[in-house]
Amino acid sequence: MSEQSGYSEGDLRNTGMALKHDREWDYELERIIEAVDERDAEKVGLQFPEGLKRRGPQVADDLRELLPDDVTILLSGQPCYGACDLDTYLMKRTDVFVHFGHSPMKNTDKVIYVPLFSNVDVFPIMEESMEELEVGDIGLVTTAQHMNHFERMREWLEERGFDVHTRRGDDRLTHEGQVLGCNYASADIDADQVLYVGGGKFHPLGLAMEHPDKTVVIADPVNNVVTVADTEKFLKQRYGAVHRAMDAEKWGVIFCTKIGQGRWDIAQDIIDENENAYLITMDEVTPDRLRNFDMDAFVNTGCPRITTDDGPRFHKPMLTPGEYEIAVGNEPLDSLEFDTFHGTW
User: Fold this and answer.
1) Could you please report the per-residue DSSP string of 34-49?
2) Are strands 225-228 and 43-47 parallel, antiparallel or unpaired?
């Protein structure tokens, strides 16, 4: 996420991780080499998330030194923001396809997932978070990058008198206690407070929206800060978008063609019920790509972060499916909630 001036206080583009730590990851090169040998592979595809693309050439160089000369390494240049965002074009044209930086969303023999666990020490910031927590029942959640510390986090809290509640969530989640930017089912636990250990504010804000009855404490070991999730500014931004869309007549309904982001049934329902709604299929949803469509407002049935992170950048209101229902009068204004994904593909 870029950090430019002039964003509204509720704009989540201001809340991405600032990399303040030197990081070293295990790229699991031996596992990749074994897969190349087993499959007698000639082409190996590597896909990195946006923040790690700069590491791609070095990883490719390391593999070239270890693999036979006749093996070709291909780097994906497609945007990538999660395990739901695989480069299917490259995947179909390589013998081994490696996806770095995320946990598998669905078991498949076609993809090697390398999660790239963080080496940041989470326990100093957890110690600071004790000032915001009450000893008793507590939920514990984190992101894929910190799952290597999860069991020790649980033990650490238990040693300090907490009764720690965790669960895996649904099929979209790989690990117990894991949350995604679009799924917080792991926080469906019997506790009034949840400790989120991880970088950024997007995940805990979504968690707080999804579970408004819980206090969400953010222990951010990347930025070295402890805060309590506050949804007020974010809600103001979303209510503003809904109000601007209430007079819309022509709606663009976006169906995302990325492998793990399509919600066809939701898009089709809107089209069937609104004669002034038009289905737009896209792989990458950006303001520039929508600017030439003569619409009064848009509904995004793809990744929720398109709406919440980038919503203010679009030239017309960009709503989630739930917000659309409010804007057209099918649901009351107070039914606004965070858009989440369930299931895989």
Assistant:
1) HHHHHHT-SEEEEE--
2) unpaired
* Mean pLDDT value across residues 257-266: 89
**Is 252 in a helix, a strand, or coil?**
strand
CA 207 to mean position of chain CA atoms: 12
**Helix, strand and coil in the chain, % to nearest 5:** 35, 20, 45
For residue 18, give both structure tokens: 């600032």
**pLDDT reported for residue 306:** 87
Residues 259, 283: contact at Cβ < 8 Å? no
Minimal CA–CA distance to 258: which of 286, 288, 284, 289? 284
Mean pLDDT of the chain: 88
Burial level of 86, CB count in 10 A (0-12/13-18/19+)?
Answer: buried
| Amino acid 169: pLDDT | 79
Sheet order of strands, 43-47 included: 72-75, 43-47, 96-100, 111-114
The pLDDT value recorded for residue 345 is 60
